[in-house]
Amino acid sequence: MKIHELFSYICVSDAERAIAFYQQAFGVTEKFRLVGPNGRIGHAELDFGGAILMLADEFPEFGAHAPAHYGGTPTMLHLHVDDADEAIRRAVAAGAEIEREPQDQFYGERSGTIRDPFGHRWNIGHHLEDVSPEEMQRRYEKLFESGT
Prior knowledge:
It contains three helices and eight strands; from the N terminus they run E-H-E-E-E-E-H-E-E-E-H. The protein is of the alpha/beta class. It has a single domain (8-145), classed as Roll (2,3-Dihydroxybiphenyl 1,2-Dioxygenase, domain 1). Strands 1-4-3-2 form a four-stranded mixed β-sheet, covered by helices on one side. Strands 5-8-7-6 form a four-stranded mixed β-sheet, covered by helices on one side. A hairpin with a 5-residue loop joins strand 2 and strand 3 (41-48). The chain is elongated.
Protein backbone atom coordinates (compact mmCIF):
# COMPACT_ATOMS: atom_id res chain seq x y z
CA MET A 1 0.00 0.00 0.00
CA LYS A 2 1.28 3.43 -0.90
CA ILE A 3 -0.11 6.43 0.97
CA HIS A 4 -0.52 9.47 -1.23
CA GLU A 5 -1.88 12.11 1.16
CA LEU A 6 -3.49 12.59 4.55
CA PHE A 7 -6.27 15.15 4.92
CA SER A 8 -7.94 16.51 8.03
CA TYR A 9 -11.72 16.36 7.66
CA ILE A 10 -13.77 18.24 10.21
CA CYS A 11 -17.47 18.51 10.91
CA VAL A 12 -18.89 21.92 11.84
CA SER A 13 -22.27 23.21 12.95
CA ASP A 14 -22.43 25.87 10.21
CA ALA A 15 -20.12 25.13 7.27
CA GLU A 16 -20.99 28.34 5.42
CA ARG A 17 -19.97 30.43 8.42
CA ALA A 18 -16.95 28.21 9.12
CA ILE A 19 -15.62 28.69 5.59
CA ALA A 20 -15.97 32.47 5.98
CA PHE A 21 -14.18 32.31 9.35
CA TYR A 22 -11.24 30.27 7.99
CA GLN A 23 -10.92 32.64 5.04
CA GLN A 24 -10.83 35.67 7.33
CA ALA A 25 -8.72 34.11 10.08
CA PHE A 26 -6.17 32.24 7.97
CA GLY A 27 -6.51 33.70 4.47
CA VAL A 28 -7.40 30.32 2.95
CA THR A 29 -8.91 29.76 -0.47
CA GLU A 30 -12.04 27.71 -1.02
CA LYS A 31 -11.41 25.16 -3.75
CA PHE A 32 -15.03 24.01 -4.05
CA ARG A 33 -18.11 22.88 -2.14
CA LEU A 34 -20.96 20.44 -2.64
CA VAL A 35 -24.34 21.67 -1.41
CA GLY A 36 -27.32 19.36 -0.95
CA PRO A 37 -30.93 20.21 -1.76
CA ASN A 38 -31.48 21.02 1.92
CA GLY A 39 -28.73 23.68 1.79
CA ARG A 40 -26.26 21.78 3.95
CA ILE A 41 -22.68 21.65 2.75
CA GLY A 42 -21.85 17.98 2.32
CA HIS A 43 -18.23 18.59 1.42
CA ALA A 44 -15.93 21.58 1.01
CA GLU A 45 -12.20 21.88 0.50
CA LEU A 46 -10.09 24.77 1.75
CA ASP A 47 -6.54 25.36 0.56
CA PHE A 48 -4.19 26.31 3.41
CA GLY A 49 -1.23 27.20 1.18
CA GLY A 50 -1.04 23.76 -0.40
CA ALA A 51 -2.47 21.77 2.53
CA ILE A 52 -6.13 20.86 2.18
CA LEU A 53 -8.67 20.92 4.99
CA MET A 54 -11.95 19.20 4.21
CA LEU A 55 -15.12 20.06 6.08
CA ALA A 56 -18.84 19.48 6.10
CA ASP A 57 -21.96 20.46 7.97
CA GLU A 58 -23.29 18.10 10.60
CA PHE A 59 -25.17 15.09 9.28
CA PRO A 60 -26.51 13.43 12.43
CA GLU A 61 -28.38 10.90 10.32
CA PHE A 62 -24.95 9.56 9.33
CA GLY A 63 -23.32 9.99 12.75
CA ALA A 64 -21.42 13.14 11.69
CA HIS A 65 -21.43 15.66 14.54
CA ALA A 66 -19.53 18.85 15.38
CA PRO A 67 -17.46 19.03 18.61
CA ALA A 68 -20.31 20.52 20.69
CA HIS A 69 -22.24 17.27 20.33
CA TYR A 70 -19.45 15.53 22.26
CA GLY A 71 -18.79 18.34 24.73
CA GLY A 72 -15.58 19.35 22.94
CA THR A 73 -12.87 17.75 20.85
CA PRO A 74 -9.92 15.58 21.87
CA THR A 75 -8.01 16.47 18.71
CA MET A 76 -6.01 19.48 17.64
CA LEU A 77 -5.00 20.81 14.24
CA HIS A 78 -1.47 22.19 14.00
CA LEU A 79 -0.94 25.13 11.67
CA HIS A 80 2.69 26.01 10.94
CA VAL A 81 3.02 29.67 9.85
CA ASP A 82 5.63 32.41 9.45
CA ASP A 83 4.46 34.39 12.50
CA ALA A 84 2.42 32.57 15.14
CA ASP A 85 1.66 35.70 17.16
CA GLU A 86 0.18 37.46 14.13
CA ALA A 87 -1.77 34.39 13.01
CA ILE A 88 -3.26 33.99 16.48
CA ARG A 89 -4.16 37.70 16.66
CA ARG A 90 -5.85 37.42 13.27
CA ALA A 91 -7.83 34.33 14.31
CA VAL A 92 -8.94 36.01 17.55
CA ALA A 93 -10.04 39.09 15.61
CA ALA A 94 -12.12 36.78 13.41
CA GLY A 95 -13.82 35.21 16.45
CA ALA A 96 -11.52 32.53 17.91
CA GLU A 97 -10.73 32.28 21.62
CA ILE A 98 -7.22 31.92 23.01
CA GLU A 99 -6.64 28.77 25.03
CA ARG A 100 -2.90 29.25 25.43
CA GLU A 101 -1.02 32.47 24.65
CA PRO A 102 1.90 32.12 22.22
CA GLN A 103 5.21 31.32 23.88
CA ASP A 104 8.57 29.81 23.02
CA GLN A 105 8.47 26.02 23.32
CA PHE A 106 11.13 23.48 24.27
CA TYR A 107 10.82 21.76 20.90
CA GLY A 108 12.09 24.80 18.97
CA GLU A 109 8.84 26.48 18.04
CA ARG A 110 6.87 29.49 19.21
CA SER A 111 3.24 28.47 19.47
CA GLY A 112 -0.12 29.08 21.09
CA THR A 113 -3.53 27.46 21.00
CA ILE A 114 -6.92 28.80 19.94
CA ARG A 115 -10.41 27.34 19.80
CA ASP A 116 -12.32 28.40 16.70
CA PRO A 117 -16.01 29.39 16.89
CA PHE A 118 -16.94 25.84 15.81
CA GLY A 119 -15.18 24.07 18.68
CA HIS A 120 -12.04 22.96 16.86
CA ARG A 121 -8.68 23.50 18.55
CA TRP A 122 -5.69 24.86 16.61
CA ASN A 123 -2.09 24.90 17.74
CA ILE A 124 -0.47 27.68 15.71
CA GLY A 125 3.30 27.93 15.64
CA HIS A 126 6.42 29.02 13.83
CA HIS A 127 9.96 27.66 13.76
CA LEU A 128 12.55 29.08 16.14
CA GLU A 129 15.40 26.57 16.09
CA ASP A 130 16.30 23.08 14.96
CA VAL A 131 16.28 20.74 17.94
CA SER A 132 17.53 17.16 17.74
CA PRO A 133 15.25 14.45 19.15
CA GLU A 134 17.80 13.83 21.91
CA GLU A 135 17.90 17.50 22.93
CA MET A 136 14.12 17.69 22.72
CA GLN A 137 13.86 14.69 25.09
CA ARG A 138 16.32 16.31 27.51
CA ARG A 139 14.32 19.56 27.52
CA TYR A 140 11.07 17.62 27.89
CA GLU A 141 12.38 15.78 30.96
CA LYS A 142 13.57 19.09 32.41
CA LEU A 143 9.99 20.42 32.23
CA PHE A 144 8.91 17.70 34.63
CA GLU A 145 11.80 18.42 36.99
CA SER A 146 10.60 22.03 37.32
CA GLY A 147 7.04 20.91 38.08
CA THR A 148 5.49 21.99 34.78
